[in-house]
């Protein structure tokens, strides 16, 4: 889910960036010759997507930053007041309870509740090659596992709260960083630069204690400051769309089926609408975008229902395994529920984007911290991408609060390294698990299918493991 | 004094005992009694200091000889450290240990000062998290590049940093100038404690001599001078190195010669002072010691931690209690 947002955000930004730089270079050259005195600020956040805006908002509502000057650079123009459209948009996120806690801390969650969101009370994940499945739900469906919210709604809620905050945060719309002068660089007079200077497309130059790179998976902050980055192309595209369901039910279940070509997920949006995220081969994705709506709906239903890939041998082994397991463990039979039937697709809601794994080996350098997709981008199959980004925001906010409380320089590497360590300990296992799952399920090689089916089935029977997974996913 | 405050390490094990929790805890709900607008006061202060700074010619001209008899400064040491001064603000460079020591000494100072204020304060009002030290006037003796002065000023205190090396003073001034808020709260003066007695006697809420005592020629005289500057009820914070066999081994042999954490020649073991001796000196100047705590440096993680063991580095907090004795001490 996160990837969905990230991609669009980034493409948007990219667009603005490239159109801006040309015209603004000229402006900048002109201005820089007239005024070369940089403006001193405390923190610059590059990128006003969901994660960047949340960072700005968290700092704006943090008492300890009351007297600091924080600037948010956003490539997109100011949108004005957000009016909730009647139709749902196709870019959605599954927000974890931890993300909700962060949004609550600065009041954005209340704004989202006033707009719209859909809780997920149960999750069912199953294999196309066998009957193995796993379900997640918190005790008796009381607690919500996640919340499906449209990206636009999340961003609007955060921006509302940001505008309502004090004047310590300035938002510079339609601007982006054009060049940077990093600390340690030698200037014309042979002095070592102590601060970081950001030259902005509007001609200003900002000298800052700390630059936070929240500029998406093609982060210019990351690229210009030479962070070592690992990149892996999944050779998959994710197709998103808003789907109409056949009957109005209590739509609170997230469905995901692992097909040989990639996972397909159906996420609840409202009583009769769901959001689709279908990771598949690029050829198939392109085809899905151009076929008529009827055929698209048939393709989606077929992907959830067909039994073509079933491995008969695995099926039989799994059956006997399951009966043995039932004798050993006092668990009720796992009932496989069936996903709702899709009857239509919202007009013009189909879109696709490529999937990749991006990971920056470091998240910090002197006076630079990367957050969100700028630091790590993962496969959307578990909907964890944006939650990891919001996790970065919580963590960096915490570390900066501590640093400023000590009277320390917020750009000091000794604090930033603490952020990096904490986050990498969390992000890397999540990333490895998701990457591993993605690899494990894109094959129909019988022994592997058998192993993964037995594994999934066993995991599903062991409640303590499942609860631990739920807890892990909500931290 | 050139505050090249070096401290020794080669501690092969990590000591995580933090008996100091009480002191290090976050001061979320703190109160303090009166708000003094130091910015206004700083003008009158600068008047006081004019004599000092003119005499020492703060700005550009060559160094003026200071009357020798009056001082506790070792000229040799000043030379040694001026060469290092460019590196003050490189956190990963020569002064890493001093930068990371802030993680212990800043909370120590902040918590003690606020506690002190709360005890004496009749009216309590909410502290602002970003300016916890507002209203405190602090003297940082041997301020060096301003590694400790700046954080304290950022927390709202009015800080005077004095250092005998003009180069250090210039480095400190150049570094702070970028931030107007902080620059208003700091004044760096090339002077000695003795220079200040005339104009600033008993005027500071707090005097800090962090990693300085081990570099002065005459510690008793230095301590006496520092004590005279503290207001009755005010605090003195000292961090230094104990005079033990272990401190010789770690502070001089290991840190300077083997590990090269510190420039060789930084420390002279004979100048190290034990906490008992320091307490004795403070007692004589009307100060009661509130706390002595060991500090340990881990050369691998480059972090400090509190420890009960004071045989190497330690921090000491004393409060000016007896006014009569204090007056006595002056004569």
Automatic annotation (TrEMBL), chain A:
Instruction: Please tell me where this protein is predominantly located.
Output: mitochondrion
Domain FAD-binding, by residue range, is 40-282, 349-427
Give the top-rank taxon of the lineage listed in the UniProt record for this protein.
Eukaryota
> In which compartments does the protein localize?
Mitochondrion inner membrane
| E.C. code | 1.14.15.45, 1.14.15.46
| Entry function | FAD-dependent monooxygenase required for two non-consecutive steps during ubiquinone biosynthesis. Required for the C5-ring hydroxylation during ubiquinone biosynthesis by catalyzing the hydroxylation of 4-hydroxy-3-(all-trans-polyprenyl)benzoic acid to 3,4-dihydroxy-5-(all-trans-polyprenyl)benzoic acid. Also acts downstream of coq4, for the C1-hydroxylation during ubiquinone biosynthesis by catalyzing the hydroxylation of 2-methoxy-6-(all-trans-polyprenyl)phenol to 2-methoxy-6-(all-trans-polyprenyl)benzene-1,4-diol.
What family does the database annotate?
Belongs to the UbiH/COQ6 family.
Q: Which NCBIfam families match?
A: COQ6, Ubi-OHases
Q: What is this protein called?
A: Ubiquinone biosynthesis monooxygenase COQ6, mitochondrial
UniProtKB/TrEMBL annotation, chain B:
Under Pfam families, the record lists:
Methyltransf_11 (PF08241)
Topology relative to the lipid bilayer, per the entry, is: Peripheral membrane protein
- Tell me the residue numbers annotated for binding S-adenosyl-L-methionine: 105, 142, 163, 210
Q: Which residues form the Methyltransferase type domain?
A: 139-237
One GO CC term of this entry? extrinsic component of mitochondrial inner membrane
UniProt-annotated location(s): Mitochondrion inner membrane
Any one biological process term the GO annotation gives: methylation
This protein's pathway reads: Cofactor biosynthesis; ubiquinone biosynthesis
Catalyzed reactions per annotation:
a 3-demethylubiquinol + S-adenosyl-L-methionine = a ubiquinol + S-adenosyl-L-homocysteine + H(+); a 3,4-dihydroxy-5-(all-trans-polyprenyl)benzoate + S-adenosyl-L-methionine = a 4-hydroxy-3-methoxy-5-(all-trans-polyprenyl)benzoate + S-adenosyl-L-homocysteine + H(+); a 3-demethylubiquinone + S-adenosyl-L-methionine = a ubiquinone + S-adenosyl-L-homocysteine
Please give the chief subcellular localization of this protein: mitochondrion
**PANTHER family per record:** METHYLTRANSFERASE, UBIQUINONE BIOSYNTHESIS O-METHYLTRANSFERASE, MITOCHONDRIAL
Q: Which HAMAP family match?
A: UbiG
**Subunit arrangement?**
Component of a multi-subunit COQ enzyme complex.
Its annotated function is as follows: O-methyltransferase required for two non-consecutive steps during ubiquinone biosynthesis. Catalyzes the 2 O-methylation of 3,4-dihydroxy-5-(all-trans-polyprenyl)benzoic acid into 4-hydroxy-3-methoxy-5-(all-trans-polyprenyl)benzoic acid. Also catalyzes the last step of ubiquinone biosynthesis by mediating methylation of 3-demethylubiquinone into ubiquinone. Also able to mediate the methylation of 3-demethylubiquinol into ubiquinol.
The UniProt entry's sequence similarity note says: Belongs to the class I-like SAM-binding methyltransferase superfamily. UbiG/COQ3 family.
> Which protein are we looking at?
Ubiquinone biosynthesis O-methyltransferase, mitochondrial
Recorded source organism is Patella caerulea
């Amino acid at each position: 889910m996160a990837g969905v947002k990230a991609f669009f955000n980034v493409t948007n930004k990219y667009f603005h960036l490239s159109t801006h730089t040309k015209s603004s270079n000229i402006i900048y050259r002109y201005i820089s010759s007239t005024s070369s005195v940089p403006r001193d600020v405390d923190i610059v956040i590059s990128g006003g997507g969901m994660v960047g805006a949340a960072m700005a908002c968290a700092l704006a509502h943090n008492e300890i930053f009351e007297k600091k000057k924080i600037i948010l650079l956003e490539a997109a123009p100011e949108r004005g007041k957000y009016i909730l459209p009647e139709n749902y948009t196709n870019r959605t996120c599954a927000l974890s309870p931890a993300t909700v806690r962060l949004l609550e801390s600065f009041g954005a969650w209340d704004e989202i509740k006033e707009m719209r969101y859909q809780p997920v009370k149960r999750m069912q994940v199953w294999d196309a090659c066998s009957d193995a499945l796993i379900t997640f739900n918190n005790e008796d469906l009381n607690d919500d596992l996640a919340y499906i919210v449209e990206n636009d709604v999340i961003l609007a809620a955060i921006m509302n709260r940001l505008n309502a905050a004090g004047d310590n945060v300035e938002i510079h719309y339609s601007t982006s960083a054009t060049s940077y002068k990093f600390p340690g660089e030698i200037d014309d007079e042979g002095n070592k630069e102590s601060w970081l200077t950001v030259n902005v497309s509007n001609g200003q130059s900002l000298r800052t204690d700390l630059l936070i790179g929240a500029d998406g998976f093609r982060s210019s902050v990351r690229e210009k400051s030479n962070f070592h980055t690992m990149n892996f192309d999944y050779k998959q595209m994710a197709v998103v769309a808003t789907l109409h369901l056949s009957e109005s039910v209590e739509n609170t279940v997230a469905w995901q089926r692992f097909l040989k070509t990639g996972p397909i997920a159906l996420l609840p949006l409202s009583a009769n609408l769901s959001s689709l995220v279908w990771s598949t081969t690029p050829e198939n994705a392109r085809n899905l975008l151009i076929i008529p709506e009827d055929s698209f709906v048939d393709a989606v239903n077929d992907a959830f229902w067909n039994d073509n890939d079933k491995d008969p041998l695995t099926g039989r082994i799994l059956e006997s395994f399951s009966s043995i397991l039932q004798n050993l463990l006092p668990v009720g039979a796992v009932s496989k529920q069936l996903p709702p039937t899709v009857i239509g697709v919202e007009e013009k809601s189909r879109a696709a984007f490529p999937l990749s794994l991006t990971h920056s080996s470091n998240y910090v350098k002197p006076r630079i911290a990367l957050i969100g997709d700028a630091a790590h981008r993962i496969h959307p199959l578990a909907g964890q991408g944006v939650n990891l980004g919001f996790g970065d925001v919580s963590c960096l906010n915490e570390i900066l609060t501590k640093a400023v409380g000590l009277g320390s320089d917020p750009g000091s590497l000794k604090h930033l390294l603490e952020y990096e360590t904490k986050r990498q300990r969390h992000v890397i296992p999540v990333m490895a698990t998701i990457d591993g799952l993605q690899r494990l399920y894109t094959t129909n090689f019988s022994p592997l299918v058998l192993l993964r089916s037995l594994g999934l089935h066993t995991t599903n029977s062991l409640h303590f493991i499942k609860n631990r997974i739920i807890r892990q996913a909500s931290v | 004094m050139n505050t090249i405050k070096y401290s020794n390490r080669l501690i092969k094990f990590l000591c995580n005992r933090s008996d100091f929790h009480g002191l290090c805890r976050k001061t979320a709900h703190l109160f303090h009694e009166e708000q003094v607008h130091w910015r206004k006061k700083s003008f009158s202060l600068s008047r006081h200091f004019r004599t000092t700074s003119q005499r020492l010619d703060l700005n550009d001209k060559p160094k003026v000889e200071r009357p020798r008899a009056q001082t506790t400064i070792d000229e040799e040491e000043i030379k040694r450290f001026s060469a290092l001064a460019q590196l003050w603000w490189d956190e990963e460079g020569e002064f890493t240990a001093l930068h990371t020591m802030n993680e212990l000494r800043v909370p120590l100072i902040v918590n003690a000062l606020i506690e002190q204020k709360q005890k004496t304060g009749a009216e309590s009002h909410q502290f602002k998290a970003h300016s916890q030290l507002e209203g405190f006037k602090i003297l940082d003796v041997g301020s060096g590049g301003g590694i400790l002065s700046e954080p304290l000023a950022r927390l709202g205190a009015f800080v005077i940093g004095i250092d005998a090396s003009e180069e250090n003073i210039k480095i400190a001034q150049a570094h702070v100038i970028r931030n107007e808020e902080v620059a208003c709260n700091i004044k760096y003066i090339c002077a000695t404690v003795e220079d200040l007695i005339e104009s600033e006697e008993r005027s500071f809420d707090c005097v800090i001599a962090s990693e300085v005592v081990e570099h002065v020629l005459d510690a008793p005289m230095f301590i006496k001078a520092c004590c005279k500057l503290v207001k009755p009820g005010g605090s003195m914070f000292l961090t230094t190195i104990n005079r033990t066999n272990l401190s010789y081994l770690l502070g001089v042999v290991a840190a300077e010669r083997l590990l090269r954490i510190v420039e060789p020649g930084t420390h002279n073991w004979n100048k190290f002072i034990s906490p008992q001796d320091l307490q004795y000196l403070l007692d004589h100047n009307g100060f009661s010691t509130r706390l002595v705590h060991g500090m340990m440096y881990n050369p691998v993680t480059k972090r400090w931690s509190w420890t009960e063991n004071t045989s190497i580095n330690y921090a000491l907090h004393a409060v000016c209690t007896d006014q009569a004795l204090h007056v006595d001490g002056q004569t």
